[in-house]
Design a protein that fits this description.
The structure holds two protein chains of two kinds.
Chain A lengths: L3 H28 L3 H24 L4 H25 L2 H4 L10 H23 L5 H23 L3 H22 L5 H29 L17
Helix pairs in contact in A: 1-2, 1-6, 2-3, 2-7, 3-8, 5-6, 6-7, 7-8
Chain B lengths: L1 H17 L1 H33 L1 E5 L3 E4 H28 L6 H20 L3 H13 L2 H4 L5 H34 L7 H7 L5 H19 L7 H8 L2 H30 L1 H23 L4 H22 L2 H32 L10 H4 L1 H15 L5 H15 L3 H26 L15 H19 L3 H15 L1
Helix pairs in contact in B: 1-2, 1-4, 2-3, 2-4, 2-20, 3-4, 3-11, 3-14, 3-19, 3-20, 4-5, 4-11, 5-7, 5-11, 7-9, 7-10, 9-11, 10-11, 10-13, 11-12, 11-13, 11-14, 12-13, 12-18, 13-14, 13-18, 14-16, 14-17, 14-19, 14-20, 16-18, 16-19, 17-19
Classes of the chains: A mainly alpha, B mainly alpha.
């Protein structure tokens, strides 16, 4: 039977691995050209979010974190893709190419810059004395937050924009595992519910845009602005 | 008990509206009835809060103090007016009358989310309530399903939800800061108790991310771009709610955070509030001048007023905080009146373009007179409420010795004043066009709403009733810490 400290160090290392893979899947969302691929990377990202929660919940044993991990594991990889399929019509969902403002190699470079930047931003925060897991979770979570925001800005399709939004939320929660692990369980439950409503509302809106305007290229919606020609 | 009733009633009303068989017949009266009851309950809450300082419904979860009560009162007042206005406006202006029960169902949910913001005590629950204000109003903004309305709804959803995600990170860092400060109770009071022990770097990160994230929702520059779209494309009663009280309800969260940030960061918190506030006021004042759509005119004016209130909160001192609270009330009431007037103009003329509207005072006296009245009031002309608020803020700023901020604020206010009146004058006065046909009359409930909304704007400009003064003074003391 290994000592508690040994278990600890193994778990911290496994958590670091989960963090690395979480970041990698976030990069995948930036790099992929297809809506389906984007969704798959989001699912993978959510699974690694849940694994990090599970790993840090094992020792010292925290039923609370394990419960949150299970909520996430059911909510994001299973219910959200199903809900998206239900609300957004099939045609939009299976759309192949994502129109994007910047091309993929440049996007990856920007993503790399944002990741380095998030380590830089997290450094002063970590000085206040956080545990070992925070060294991984805070910068990686922050990176996912920034990369999600970046995806939102450059993607012009509706569904990938929504996924960028969800990836931001994943990033915030990835950071929270290390910095705010004792957040009330009730709140976690309501947040999970809130994410579902967000997916539902934006899904309905996407469908309405598709029906009434005939496109889901939301980047092309630029009629509203202060323009003297109007 | 009162607070729980306030939270539960709109949900019940929403369910009633959503059941198609019931909703198709009684959605409108149910919604109006609910809003009136909410207003009565909110008035009772205000009475109790003035007497006892606070009402606790569920310890640690649901509680309201003077600051929250101000928001609660405003939401319910504008809620009643907006619903009353909807009765006449929506059947006239909407394409699909069969779906109106959806509209009322969503309206109830939207009002629920807005009354939830000031009565919950946990920052994380407050974040959720703010998130719900977006989610439950997106479909109202896109209700018309026109190309423009859907575009506005999309931008609204994506930008404000992005802001909320950034703010979420801030709230998690705030939790971390509280734990590091030795706190155990993640409520606004619990935060205040340990604010002195929080690591300033964490508090600063939390404060700035929340200011930027929720700033997107409040409409602070540079994340305001969605606001003129959403606030102009939504159905008019919804515009009144969005512009009048939704922005304010989110600004309330930032005001809640100010005293906590002040303990931890000293004057830095106020400085950030002043910087963000003044940028918003200045940019919005300049953008006001070049609008072509009169609903966008009032939307930009909302950005301006949010900036004024944030600047006032950043000036520091009891007088400035009182000014901020007074301005919140004055803006919410006046801005909803402006949108009701804009809706009347839209009903009378059928266009939103400023250039196509002329000589309203002759072609449609009611719409013209209320538009002129609302325009003067919101621009800050004496003797209306907004004038009194702005004057009080400027005076408080001078007493605090913040001459630069006051100077910049005063210049922006003058620019905005002329910007608004320039457009309003053009629309209301002048010579009517030759082919001006007989215009449709304005529905009775809309007329009633216009008069009812105008009363407080005049009264508050002349004198502040004692109970309101005491409520605002208590609320200002809370912002002061």
């Amino acid at each position: 039977m290994p000592h508690g400290t040994q278990i600890d160090s193994i778990l911290v290392q496994l958590n670091a691995l989960a963090g690395g893979l979480f970041l990698l899947s976030t990069f995948g969302m930036v790099a992929t050209r297809q809506v389906q691929g984007c969704l798959r990377f989001f699912i993978v990202q959510s699974i690694f979010l849940a694994s990090s929660m599970l790993l840090l919940g094992l020792h010292p044993l925290s039923w609370h974190l394990i419960a949150v991990a299970i909520i996430n594991l059911i909510n994001k990889p299973i219910i959200i893709p199903w809900l998206l399929k239900k609300t957004v019509s099939e045609e939009v969902y299976a759309r192949r190419e994502i129109v994007q403002a910047l091309n993929i190699p440049i996007s990856l470079l920007v993503a790399l810059g944002l990741t380095i930047g998030s380590y830089y931003l997290a450094a002063p925060l970590l000085k206040v004395g956080a545990g070992l897991p925070a060294l991984v979770n805070l910068p990686v979570g922050l990176a996912a937050l920034l990369l999600g925001a970046y995806t939102l800005t450059v993607r012009r399709e509706a569904v990938p924009q929504l996924l960028g939004l969800l990836s931001m939320e994943n990033g915030a929660f990835f950071a929270s595992i290390a910095i705010a692990p004792e957040l009330h369980l009730f709140i976690e439950l309501v947040v999970a519910f809130d994410v579902l409503i967000a997916v539902f509302v934006i899904g309905v809106l996407t469908r309405a845009i598709h029906e009434h305007i005939g496109t889901t290229d939301v980047g092309a919606l630029t009629a509203l602005k202060e323009d003297s020609s109007r | 008990m009162i607070l729980i009733a306030i939270l539960v009633l709109p949900l019940i009303a929403a369910i009633l509206c959503w059941i198609a068989a019931v909703g198709k017949r009684v959605a409108a009266p149910v919604t109006l009835g609910t809003c009136v009851i909410l207003l009565v309950l909110a008035a009772r809450t205000a009475y109790l809060v003035i007497a006892f300082g606070r009402i606790v419904a569920v310890p640690g979860w649901i509680k309201v103090d003077a600051l929250g009560t101000v928001i609660l009162l405003l939401v319910t007042v504008v809620g009643v007016l907006a619903t009353l206005y909807s009765l006449g406006y929506m059947p006239r202006m909407t394409h699909d009358k069969d779906l109106l029960y959806h509209y009322y169902g969503n309206l109830n949910l939207f009002i629920f989310s807005m009354v939830a913001v000031p009565v919950v005590v946990g920052p994380s629950v407050t974040w959720l309530a703010v998130e719900f204000t977006t989610l439950l109003s997106v479909l109202l903004v896109g209700f018309e399903s026109s190309r423009d309305a859907l575009e506005a709804a999309w931008k609204y959803a994506i930008l404000t939800l992005t802001g909320a995600s950034i703010a979420l990170f801030g709230f998690l860092v705030l939790f971390w800061a509280m734990r590091q400060g030795g706190g155990d109770n993640y409520t606004w009071d619990g935060l205040q108790a340990v604010a002195g022990h929080m690591p300033p770097v964490l508090m600063k990160t939390a404060f700035l991310t929340i200011l930027v994230g929720f700033g997107a929702k409040v409409g602070l520059v540079p994340l305001h771009t969605w606001l003129p779209d959403a606030h102009s494309q939504a159905p008019t009663p919804v515009c009144a709610l969005l512009s009048g009280v939704e922005t304010t309800a989110v600004l309330y969260v930032i005001l809640r955070l100010m005293p906590i940030a002040h303990i931890s960061l000293g004057n830095d918190a106020e400085r950030w509030a002043r910087i963000f506030g003044l940028i918003s006021v200045g940019v919005a004042a300049c953008l006001l001048v070049q609008v072509h759509d009169y609903k966008r005119l009032f939307a930009f004016s909302t950005v301006e007023h949010m900036g004024i209130i944030l600047t006032a909160a950043g000036l520091g001192g009891a007088a400035a905080h009182y000014g901020a609270m007074y301005q919140i009330v004055a803006h919410a009431l006046t801005k909803s009146l402006c949108f009701f007037a804009a809706g009347a103009v839209l009903m009378a003329t059928g266009t939103r373009e400023i250039a196509s509207v002329r000589a309203l005072i002759r072609t449609s006296p009611l719409a013209g007179a209320t538009l002129l009245f609302g325009g003067l009031a919101i621009a800050g002309a004496p003797p209306f409420a907004v004038f009194l608020g702005e004057f009080g803020i400027l005076k408080a700023g001078i007493n605090q010795g913040r001459y630069v901020a006051v100077g910049l604020l005063a210049i922006s206010l003058v620019v905005a004043f002329f910007g608004i009146l320039l457009h309003v004058n053009r629309m209301v006065l002048g010579r009517p066009e030759e082919n001006a046909a007989g215009l449709p009359h304005i529905p009775l409930t809309c007329t009633v709403t216009l008069f009812a909304a105008a009363i407080p704007v005049v009264v508050l400009g002349l004198y502040v009733p004692d109970f309101l003064h005491r409520l605002l003074a208590q609320a200002a003391a809370i912002v002061g810490g």
